[in-house]
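Record type: ASSEMBLY
Status: queued
Input:
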Amino acid sequence: MALFSVFQTTFLLALLSLRTYQSEVLSEPLPWAPESLRVFINSTHQCLHLQWSVHNLAHHQELKMVFQIEISRIKTSNVIWVENYSTTVKWNQVLHWSWESKLPLECAKHFIRMRSAVDDAKTPEQSFWSNWSSWEEVHVQNSLGHDPFFVFPKDKLVEEGSNVTICYVSRSQPNNISCYLEGVRMQGEQLEPNVSVFNLNHVAFIRETGTNIYCKGDQGDSIKGIVLFVSKVLEEPKDFSCETQDLTTLNCTWDPRSDTGLLKQLSQSYTLFESFSGKKTLCKHKSWCSWEVAPESQEMYNFTLTAENYLRKRSVHLLFNLTHRVHPMAPFSVLFTDVSATNATMTWKVHTTGNYYTLLCQVELYGEGEVIQRNVSVEVDGKQLFGGLKPDTEYRAQVRCANANHFWKWSEWTRQNFTTAEAAPSEAPDVWRNVKSVQGHSVVTLFWKPLSKLQANGKILFYNIVIENLDRSSISKLLSIPAPANGTELNLDQCLYQIHVTANNSVGTSPASVIIVSGDPGNKEVEEERVKGMEDGFSLSWKPQPGNVTGYIVEWCDHPRGPLCDLQWKSVGPTTTSTVVSSDAFRPGVQYNFRIYGISTERVPYLLEKKTGYSQELAPSDNPQVVMSNLTSRSFTLSWKDYSIESQPSFIQGYHVYLKSKAGQCHSGSEKAVLSDDAVCCKYRIDNPKQKTFVVENLQPESFYEFLVTPYTSVGEGPHGAFTKVTTPDEYCL
Amino acid sequence: MSRREGSLDPQADSSISPLPHLEAKIRQTHSLARLLTKYAEQLLQEYVQHQGDPFGLPGFSPPRLPVAGLSAPAPGHAGLPAPERLRLDAAALSALQPLLDVVRRHQAELNPRAPRLLRRLEDAARQARALGAAVEAVLAALGAETRGPPAEPAAAAAAAAVAAATAATDAGVFPAKVLGLRVCGLYREWVSRTEGDLGQLVPGGPA
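Status: finished
Output:
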């Protein structure tokens, strides 16, 4: 029993000892406690840097340990930070650890202590904490100057959107110090009787030269300030891409986004690192970088582009095959050979690389209203034949190329122009004539229209006129009229002539236009039909001709009243019996006369129909000059024989004769009319435009009358101008 | 002996005799001072614009402390004899030149993309030296001797200015901005004061 008691007691004692041994605080210090603790201050970064060592480690001994670090502020009991730092400790090693304070270190005292424990699974019996080291005090305020107060942190660099704590430290208490951000008062909190702090949340970027924060005493005799440099947040580079033109240099580009450069911070730098080769380069430019490709080296590239400024780093990655990123240089030496009127051969060269790569080249040809596109495979020189081109036409050609096997990007276009050669005109000129018989011979005026560019195939230099006397089977004349003439006058006798007209350029002659001219036009009398003009011209139709016609021609004058008629014509095919004639020269109030000819198979024009009309009729602007005669006591005669109905602005349909009298009575043959001035008169109507006289009867003797004669048309009558006065004589006067 | 403020009364000081070339020199220097007063005002406006608020705001007025020993014209300046006033003007302008240089160097770092401000500061430094030299020439033509506290050699004065300014810039960007504001303000005050002092010497000017 006693032995058991002794044993029990011993066991209890041992247990107690063990428990004591295992308690957190030992009566004896741990052999591996942190020692030689030193604290360094980095005010600029608001950092405390700790250094310490662990003694009593055997040579080459390594021990996994954990160090618990406590940081207090203002007083040791005010612990603001606790952190466990694990590391493997070697013999004679100096250990380091850093801590960044949100509050500038000058704003308050800080205290640091630490303790350690072995954190090694191999020696679990040693996993207990050592004693705490003594509190190390960090007090920056002692090193400040003699000014009444100070503001911290000085010229700090922060990122936009971050939180910043500002403080002022005053030598005296109480103090009436007020602080301002960009001139606006800030509200703070008292940390200590002589220290106030201001928490700025989510600071915004204001300007590259910083944000001004200052404090002043109540007397205004002291001002202290700082500048907060708020940097834009460094962004990840965008659109990072690399390509090569020649397989010897890679050109990498990216969008750098915002520039974070400030007074306190240079613009961000860019570094390119390639993982397969392990090479790195610092890029000189902020949006591109060149990379030398070693010959016969890797095909795969794994790039990391890193943007870095004082505060932050951002990286993007790119993995690619070099041969899949070929952006060829633009082709060169574009030439055109064997250029004819309709064909051309285009050749060009491409830049070659060490290994021949097949390029796919795209060729485009732009002409007048046409585009031709071709795709061509090329290794060194490209060639493409173009046919079916238009003569005497300028073409714009362009060519670009890309990697045929792994398309990445087209090269830039290379452009070149060329002009096809001329060819002989392809169409006969459109020819017409005007024939005037003058004293036994004919004056024939030939007209022709210039060929279009498509028909001319080159610059027309002259027109050849061959005049063949059919009656005598001989060629009477051969004329060569230089361009740009569009007609000529011929004096011919009454024989039948066949006239050939051709247009000529530097290459050849057009087909001939043939027209038969007879000295006797032999035109039958054709009745003229009236036509009504429309907005876009005159719509004309005619009866189809029995028998063969090769076509019809509509002829008119653009300026029928002018000294030069300016003859115009329109040719239509044999099956066409109507057309719309338009001209910019058509004017309202002008009568246009159209003559429609049929062209026989013998090429003889025959007048078929005549039309006449106004594009727009206008009311007459003046009245005929009227002569009064045969005045009696009961009547008088009016005549206007000189009035021409042909030269009026509309078709004259007749005349109105207005008669005013005091009596106001209208006799039969007339009707009462009220004029625009409300005057009442009698109106006589003459429906025959060719009638140029009128007898006014049933008058009273010795009476005063007034008369007016005015033409009327479908669009109105002439002006109601001044009336002519007449007084009938006494009926007994002789 | 009567002493009318600012007059060239021969009876007041027999060593001063109004000669035609002296008159021309005074007029010329006065015109220069007038022109530089206008430029100094523009410089001050340009300066505050580039420092950001509260610089330029009506309620912001840092203490008007001396800079490298240079203060604003004293309240009693106008009551001093003309030669004494001109001596003080010349000394102040001479001291301002290195200070303006320091401000320009600092602004070249802080506001590198403000070429007009930097140019104005550079011009102001040069013009301060030129006006100071012109005032000294007027003094010499007046026959006035250099009296009062011995002037420091120019290099020593410049060194003192740089040291004071460097201390300010070492204290941070804000103190450097305040220093620049103070220097530009002193420049404006002294150029304006010089214009006034010369104006009183111009024949036909205010007595």
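Annotation: Chain B touches chain A at residues 50-55, 57, 59-63, 109-111, 113, 171-175, 177-178 (CB under 8 Å).
Annotation: Confidence is low (pLDDT under 50) at residues 1-17, 146-151 of chain B.
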